[in-house]
Amino acid sequence: MMKHKTGSLFIISAPSGAGKTSLVKELLTRIEHLTVSTSHTTRAARQGEENGKDYFFVDEQKFKSMINDNEFLEYAYVFNHYYGTAKQSIEVDLKEGKNIILEIDWQGARQIKSLLRSAVSIFVLPPDYHSLQERLHGRHGNDKDIVDSRMQMATEEMSHFKEYDYIVINDDFDEAVDELQSIIHATNLGCCRQSEFYEQFVAEIMAQQP
Amino acid sequence: MMKHKTGSLFIISAPSGAGKTSLVKELLTRIEHLTVSTSHTTRAARQGEENGKDYFFVDEQKFKSMINDNEFLEYAYVFNHYYGTAKQSIEVDLKEGKNIILEIDWQGARQIKSLLRSAVSIFVLPPDYHSLQERLHGRHGNDKDIVDSRMQMATEEMSHFKEYDYIVINDDFDEAVDELQSIIHATNLGCCRQSEFYEQFVAEIMAQQP
Question: Which of A104, B5, B71, B178 has the most CB atoms within 10 Å of its CB?
Answer without folding.
Answer: A104
